[in-house]
Specification:
Low-confidence stretches: 75-87
Mean pLDDT: 83
Strand content: under 5%
CATH topology of the largest domain: Arc Repressor Mutant, subunit A
Order of helices and strands: HHHHHHH
Distance between the termini: 52 Å
CATH architecture of the largest domain: Orthogonal Bundle
Structural class: mainly alpha
Number of domains: 2
Largest sheet: none
Radius of gyration: 17 Å
CATH superfamily of the largest domain: Winged helix-like DNA-binding domain superfamily/Winged helix DNA-binding domain
Length: 162
């Protein structure tokens, strides 16, 4: 395995897996989608501009996940992603865990491309340009859709406040 490819895997595997988890809501399927994306990266590593590996990989990961979602049986139940949060104190930890669970559930409830936009831009801190490249949108579409996605998140989270 080439040193450069190993560096890319080390640097981007968590981001690709998180994106796949949000989209597929199934950890084992997310692992499979990521593995397929990295296999494609391995095969195309010589033809990809090293400066554009991250957006290329996120695009391939997302497209693989969307293909998997299209192949799912329409009545198949989707699993929600619930990952335990790190806690520092009993009440603070409980509050943070509840907030994190609500936020993840709300993000999971967003339709595409809003969910991908939020994950790529707000969770992984990709630049607007990278998000536009990954989702094949214009920069103005990214900003508009991201505004709408954030608005939906705010509205839905405001509804569940105690």
């Amino acid at each position: 395995m080439s040193r450069v490819f190993r560096e890319w895997v080390d640097e981007y595997q968590d981001q690709a897996w998180t994106l796949a988890r949000y989209l597929l809501r199934d950890p084992s399927e997310a692992e499979d989608a990521c593995q397929e994306a990295f296999v494609k990266l391995w095969h195309h590593q010589d033809s990809i501009d090293p400066e554009k590996v991250r957006p290329w990989l996120m695009k391939v990961t997302r497209n693989g996940c969307l293909d998997r979602l299209r192949r799912r049986h329409p009545t198949q139940e989707l699993q929600e992603w619930h990952e335990p949060e790190a806690v520092s104190g009993p009440m603070q930890g409980l509050h943070q865990q509840e907030l994190g669970s609500r936020l993840k559930a709300t993000i999971n409830g967003l339709r595409e491309p809003y969910r991908s936009l939020v994950v790529l831009r707000d969770v992984h801190q990709h630049s607007y340009e990278e998000v536009a490249t990954v989702l094949e949108l214009t920069l103005s579409q990214v900003k508009t859709y991201l505004h709408r996605a954030r608005k939906q998140l705010r509205e839905q989270l405001a509804e569940v406040r105690p």
